[in-house]
Amino acid sequence: MNTIVESRPVASEITLLRIAAPKIARKHRAGQFVMVRVAEVGERIPLTIADSDPEAGTITIVVQAVGKTTEMLTSLGVGDEILDLAGPLGTPSEVEDFGTVIVVGGGVGTAVSYPTAVALSKAGNSVISIIGGRSQENLFFEDELAAVSTELHVCTDDGSAGRRGLVTDALADVLAATTVDRVLCAGPVVMMEAVAEVTRPYDVPTVASLNPIMVDGTGMCGGCRVSVDGTNYFACLDGPDFDAHLVDFPLLAQRNRAYVDFEAKRREAMQPCAAVSVDVEAAT
Ligand SMILES: Cc1cc2nc3c(=O)[nH]c(=O)nc-3n(C[C@H](O)[C@H](O)[C@H](O)COP(=O)(O)OP(=O)(O)OC[C@H]3O[C@@H](n4cnc5c(N)ncnc54)[C@H](O)[C@@H]3O)c2cc1C
Ligand code: FES
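Above: inputs. Below: predicted complex with flavin-adenine dinucleotide.
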């Protein structure tokens, strides 16, 4: 059991949870995630470790309520227990002094961008952060990212904060004006694919933190299979970071839609902790 020590909304339908998890906090490195099981009967879901404090023995996750498990999680408060957290999982992000790096976060992908920006800044990089969301109320971590970045560009679809437009608009402008050594992105699949296309003509190494559906998070089920340069990888072990110029994004988008009907029905039913059987074979 892991106790929640802080719970607060940071954006519309997005909640920050700080959880006691001393062993994970000690080992965590940027780019890694935890598999979270909220209650005895229910699925495990992957969530990025957005921050960790080894001295306090806590990790922070930022959760967007999109379905049954994330809604259960975001309804929990201080003192509530999470049944189990497995982690830190995944291969840490490559962190070294590349020079000038751009970190792009779309929507809840900012939870992935933030620890990467912190680690890259500590490694001596000049970090340019670009974040985006539909509206001002969908943004979070602006102050935290500003503190570790030489520039912070905020974009919203409706212009309610920062510039009106997509993160790729800001990215194109920065690339045109600045020599950039590396770009990292995290967010919706369509956004990461667009980022890859914007950076491709500049030949800038570009890394995407992929978000396939994961079942076990330990390389056993094949649910998180992604295709990169024609080779299959398991994102939970080999990733989640991959060369964005080589990822088969249409396949990732297709596989992420595999359970949409099933998930919608389950959300409608919304019987807390109802047993669910998942046809893993269908996703592999
Ligand atoms: C490595 C990794 C790190 C992640 N980090 C975070 C994070 O820090 N914060 C956060 O809020 N979410 C994160 N996600 C996504 C999160 O795991 C899913 O939103 C969650 O599993 C949905 O579970 P659910 O039962 O609430 O919703 P479900 O009912 O399972 O799904 C609801 C909707 O979300 C879509 N969905 C489900 N899983 C994913 C996925 N992996 N990626 C994109 N869409 C999905 C479904 O297709 C459906 O439309 C991460 C995913 C991965 C693979
Ligand atoms: S989630 Fe099962 S192999 Fe990656």
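The two ends are 31 Å apart (CA to CA).
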